[in-house]
Design a protein that fits this description.
Layout lengths: L6 H15 L5 E5 L23 E4 L3 E6 L8 H17 L2 E6 L4 H11 L4 E4 L2
Parallel strand pairs: 3-4, 4-5
Antiparallel strand pairs: 1-2, 2-3
């Protein structure tokens, strides 16, 4: 897969959010960036492949965070990840969060509605 043109912005947001989760009384914070343990691959029974989310953390439930930038919300790869993570969360009592810059909240909610998926939409600066 080729890197998005905003990969550096994406990785910076992942690191910023992961660092901030330590103050939220969460445990086992993992992030798919340098300096953190990598999250476990998420798979569903009876399917091939799977994918690694940007961040996972454990509170009362497992929380799966997927960070998006303005150019990735409508990407085909994003659709596959969101479908996988939303299904996994629903089937396993976890929480799936799509994290976007503030100016992308409407786009993220619109895309989730288009795909008939359930996720919390959070923002990072």
């Amino acid at each position: 897969m080729s890197k998005r043109r905003s990969q550096m912005e994406h990785d910076s947001l992942v690191e910023m959010l992961a660092d901030g989760l330590y103050s939220k009384d969460l445990k086992d914070i993992r992030a798919d960036v340098t300096g953190f343990h990598k999250p476990d691959k998420i798979t569903l029974p009876g399917t091939d492949g799977g994918d690694v989310p940007d961040i996972t953390a454990v509170g009362e439930k497992l929380i799966i965070y997927e960070i998006e930038t303005p150019d990735s919300i409508f990407d085909e790869h994003t659709e596959g990840q969101w479908s996988l993570f939303a299904s996994y969360a629903q089937e396993n009592g976890a929480v799936f969060c799509v994290v976007v810059p503030p100016m992308c909240v409407a786009d993220a909610k619109h895309r989730l509605n288009q795909l008939a998926l359930t996720a919390q939409v959070l923002t990072v600066p």
